[in-house]
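Holo prediction. Input below; ligand is magnesium ion.
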Amino acid sequence: MVIGSISVQKSYIYKICIVGNGGVGKTSMVLRYCENAFKENYIMTIGSNFSTKTVDLQEYPHFQVKLQIWDLAGQKHFSFVRPPFYRGATGIIYVFDLTRRSSFAELLEWRNEVEKVIGQKPSIIVGNKLDLADQGKREVSYQDGESLKGELHANNYFETSAKVGDSIDNVFKILTLEILKTSGKI
Ligand code: G3D
Ligand code: MG
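Structure of the complex:
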């Protein structure tokens, strides 16, 4: 908000959960994004950890948004430990591996698990390992990725490479803007 020439700084902290099958690249994505983050915390008791990072929102200089990004450790079948992990999340990143079809199909199960605990939240879908997909290993087409938006209640689909860095910053930025919009802040 700008009153006359006074600009008001608004600060928010949002909890984001990154979910998807083991091996799709969740931890690599968070590390890529938060490389220069101030700190990383490991919460061993529930087998997950979170990292924090301030989002670069050039178009909205009077907003300061810090993301607390929760990344699941451990195996998919330990679903009973996960409700506390989701609680309080304001946004979800659903990740699959472009070179592994099963990780794409199983995102529906991840959605069910997430929405059972927190209902529908601003969400984004990510097909990761674009560098491998571009080397002829693609098992999920761009169109297939796009087509999952309805079922996952997501407005955006991105293809990324945590290895090369493609589009990673954009995923977090677009999700942050969506949260700000959904909550009426912009
Ligand atoms: P997870 O946290 O979802 O379980 P990880 O996945 O981040 O641990 O990544 C699983 C493996 O995929 C790792 O390889 C990691 O290096 C690799 N990986 C993650 N993202 C990419 C990517 O964008 N491109 C490529 N080529 N590899 C990626 P290892 O060999 O350590 O198991
Ligand atoms: Mg991991």
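The chain has one domain: 7-182. That is the main takeaway for now.
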